[in-house]
TrEMBL record:
It is found in: Cell membrane. Signal peptide: none annotated. It comes from Metallosphaera yellowstonensis MK1. It is a single-pass membrane protein. One of its GO terms (cellular component) is plasma membrane. This is Twin arginine-targeting protein translocase, TatA/E family. PANTHER family: SEC-INDEPENDENT PROTEIN TRANSLOCASE PROTEIN TATA. Residues 77-95 have a biased composition (Low complexity). The chain crosses the membrane at residues 22-43. The lineage of its organism: Archaea, Thermoproteota, Thermoprotei, Sulfolobales, Sulfolobaceae. It comes from the Archaea.
Length: 121
């Protein structure tokens, strides 16, 4: 019992120094290599390009969403405070409904003309 406690007391500082040296010795490039090797072992080499492709897409979507949110915040900050958004929405909806109905009628007329041209050929 006494010898175990002596051994532990003697080797404890050595273990702490050794662990500190290991932590210092591992740099980010070593960690990246370890992660790549682990991915190859567990995921397989055929799935890695697909994995990175999906990570790239996710990153792109994140950046796109962040930019849209920033633009929306900037737009909200530049709008005058006196304007109420509800009034703008109602007036723009009534205008846009009339415009949309007109566009629908125009498109239907064009569709009818195209159908006539197709049947005549």
């Amino acid at each position: 019992m006494l010898t175990l406690s002596i051994i532990n007391n003697v080797f404890k500082p050595l273990r702490e120094i050794y662990l500190d040296e290991i932590m210092v010795a591992i740099n980010p490039s070593d960690i990246a290599i370890i992660i790549i090797v682990a991915l190859i072992l567990f995921v397989g080499s055929s799935k890695i390009p697909e994995l990175f492709r999906s990570m790239g897409r996710a990153l792109g979507e994140f950046k796109k969403g962040r930019m849209e949110a920033e633009m929306e915040i900037n737009q909200m900050q530049t709008q005058p405070v006196s304007q109420s958004p509800q009034v703008n929405v109602q007036s723009s909806q009534s205008k846009s409904v009339d415009e949309l109905e007109k566009q629908i009628k125009d498109l239907q007329a064009q569709l009818d003309q195209l159908k006539k041209q197709k049947t005549s050929q």
